[in-house]
Specification:
heterotrimer, A alpha+beta (465), B alpha/beta (477), C mainly alpha (103), B: 477 residues, alpha/beta, Amidase signature (AS) enzymes, eleven-stranded mixed beta sheet, C: mainly alpha, Histone, subunit A, 2 strands
Amino acid sequence: MSATKFEAVIGLEVHVQLQTQTKAFTSASAAFGAAPNTHTDPYTLALPGTLPVLSRAAVDAAMRMGLACACDITRRGRFARKHYFYPDSPKGYQISQLDEPLCKGGVVEFVLDGTVRKVRLNRIHMEEDAGKSMHAPDAPISLVDYNRAGVPLVEIVSEPDLRSAAEAGAYLRAIRQLVRWLGISDGNMEEGSLRCDANVSVRPAGTEKLGTKAELKNMNSFKHVEAAIEYEIARQSDLVARGERVAQETRLWNADKGTSHAMRSKEQAHDYRYFPEPDLPPLVVDDAWLARVRDELPELPLARLARFESLGLSAYDAGVLTADRHTADYFDEVVRAGAPAKKATNWIMIDLAVRVPPAHLADLIALVDAGTISGKIAKDVYEKMRADGRAPRAIVEAEGLTQVSDAGAIERVCREVVDANPKQVAQYKGGNPKILGFFVGNVMKATQGKANPEMVNEILKRLLS
Amino acid sequence: MIEGVAEIARAVRERKISAVEVLEAHAARIAADTLGCFYRLDPTAREQARAVDGKIARGEDPGLLAGVPVALKDLFVTKGLETTAGSKILEGWVPPYEGTPSRKLREAGAIVVGKLSMDEFAMGSSNENSAYGPVRNPWDPTRVPGGSSGGSAAAVAAGLVAGALGTDTGGSIRQPAALTGTTGLKPTYGRVSRYGVVAFASSLDQVGPFGRSALDVAHLLQAIAGHDPHDATSLDRPVPDYRAACDKPLGALRIGIPAEYFKDTPQAMGASVSSAIDELVKLGATKVPVELPHTRYGIAAYYIVATAEASSNLARYDGVRYGLRVAGSSLAQMYARTRAAGFGAEVKRRIMLGTYALRSGYYDAYYLRAQKVRTLIKRDFQRAFERCDVIATPTAPSTAFALGAKVDDPLEMYLNDVYTIPASLAGLPGMSIPCGFIEGLPAGLQLLGPPLGEEMLFAVAGAYQRATDWHTRRPPR
Amino acid sequence: MASKITDADVRETAVLARLELGDEEIGRMTRELDAILGYMALLDQLDVSGVEPMTHAVSLDLPLRADVVEALEPQLPVAEALADAPRTHDAFFEVPKIIEVGD
């Protein structure tokens, strides 16, 4: 084996299904999971005489992604026909974009191993999805479902700026986070609303000239994407190290075997015979539309992360809270309701799925800070808040959970416990300080947990000394 | 029997005759037809007529075209009624939806009596490419009616229906109108919705009416013109009163005469058209010579663009979801055999030409270049219309030719469209009106207008048809 | 522009177009297309530098549609969607087995 080090050069093509109500070019439903062929209409089935009509919502969603990635938005976009014969392609062509895609350039930023990476984008364009075909297990037939045919997609094409499988995985996760953040897709690889193909080549480390690239397909999860890219880098490095040629081909990942194989060469060469879509005049994005979408963009994940860290959160905590926009928004609302940032974080991170009203959570924290209830009682109150949605004060009052901070009352109970347990008193005085916990426990029990724990500790120590 | 769209609609509305009576009279003619105009009849025709009579009896508005019997080129998608586009590949296809032009006709009270024969997928100039048999010209049954809307033109010429809809991509309304002595209009591109019209060449196809007079055609256009949210290429512009336009005074009409359209014209046709233009001069118009220097490149540009778009639009005929399927041992073979069996020779030829022109490596040289030539042709017209109001030319180089005469040479057939193609490429409105006879066969005068210049065309045609009677001649029964 | 179109060109194009043509048809098609393409060479005479390709006759911006299910056209009940299909299997369209996945 040669000692030459190889550098991987990777670009990803990511398809994201947009979460609009209707398909891109017709008003049939775009919802996922319906019974086969229940979301079809004449256009979806490519019946003779049908025509495409583009939905504004699809363009809005695509533009949001483009602006979030700092792309240039094309003011007069064009659509194009991309021809290929396949049962899941009902018209025999897919409406896509070639020469004037909606978004040009752009960048996706993400954090990996503590550093911010920037991957340049080539473009983001709009297109329609294909139907789904599946093979019958015991007959030489395939079955086609057109529910998915026509669902709006954006295709996000990166420049070949990625250098490792891990980086590719992080980039892909960043895209997923962003599309979910913007509310344009649920970015679910298992369900197919986020799909990824990779272009991989290698070159000797430190050189500029690009090697021959292979295209990888059929990677159905983040793990598969990383594994497939790792495998491909190794495979190509091995070939080149032995002086052999890397073939320019499309390879399909086999997750079960952990290997890839080349597609039959006959299928490789696609002549898509692109030409501008004559049924769709130019898509005009005017200043007003652009400004509106820009204004409505939320604070993006990395900016939110930075802001959270500036509030005193650790990088880890800030990362957890910004993984999901709803969680990040919730945190902001709790802080806006008056809660200190770090304490709000601790409570929210107990269970990220829980969303009690922000004002309630802020109030709960305030009650603990004021000494009205103990931290331990607060946890019980929180569970009750989850269960029935009541405000914390209401719960505390209704159930008489107010912390007892009356020194006299506490001292009375402490004396009773001390007097009732002479054996343990002797053990404590005999040099076993841990037995204090026994007394504390009994005092808490006698007061239904409401005694102020610091005062109990202080008074017991005094009584036992 | 009362004849013509305008007359029938008025008579029915005024209760001089019922829609059912009108239908019966035309149905009898249709039953006796030996020209082959119809592919099939609409079994609901009588019901449609009764509905119109019912509305009138109840004092409700029966619509602009009340009781008028019309028929549709079989390119129009009709819900519940077989639609074949003249092809075997759609034999037996019964659409589950209705297209806009036919829907609008019905809503206007017209009685859709059936579907008309055509060249397969609108590709042809003689109706001989119909997979279900040719159509004969009512003026001489040994001759073609023109194409691709041959059935539409012949049915109107023979009085089987009062009006018909066809489509015009490179001349497929105007040329058959000229060959059958009827009036046919190709509107401005986008004036009439293409939703529910089986696509041939998307950037060229236009729906248009046939009638026996400009006034009849104006009635039909009135009903079908206008914006349609189903068609992103349909124009969102107001629809004027086309019927009133037929009566508009010509004023100081300037008729543009392009030398390019007359220099190679056979003598008799040139003479016929010239005397028609002289008729207009007698009515107060002046002739203005104009130049359309890129005319000679029209056919080449057209046959690249149209076939490229056709090869794309016909990719959906694969035997998977509807239409003909021929079994194959693999998916690819099923596709290839289905399409080979389902498409006729001309359609295959055009698919091949169009596919070739779009292949990577050839796109710039063919399709892109042809689209640029289109711009040059459009600019020619723009310049010409700065100096004239309407352009007058022959519609076709010859009168109706014999069945079988041109089927062996596709290129020769394409050259038939020399006068109609440029206006299609430029998206301009064009009308053919009867202007005389040459050896007993009709000849047509073509009038071309600027974008959305239909009113101008109706005014000129209306004036011409008041001063002459070519359009009133009827073929021998 | 292109020189003569050959038999091989025609065969490749026929595959791209999914048209099964017999040998005799290929021969005839080659002759016919060659004649037609020869005629098309007329366009090479023109200087089209700086000329924009024509898209639409009357300039038009793309109209957009509201995101409302069935606003344009009702969805088809499954039975209707499948009604004209040459072969179906349960609620699916049936085709001969597709060999390669993942495209």
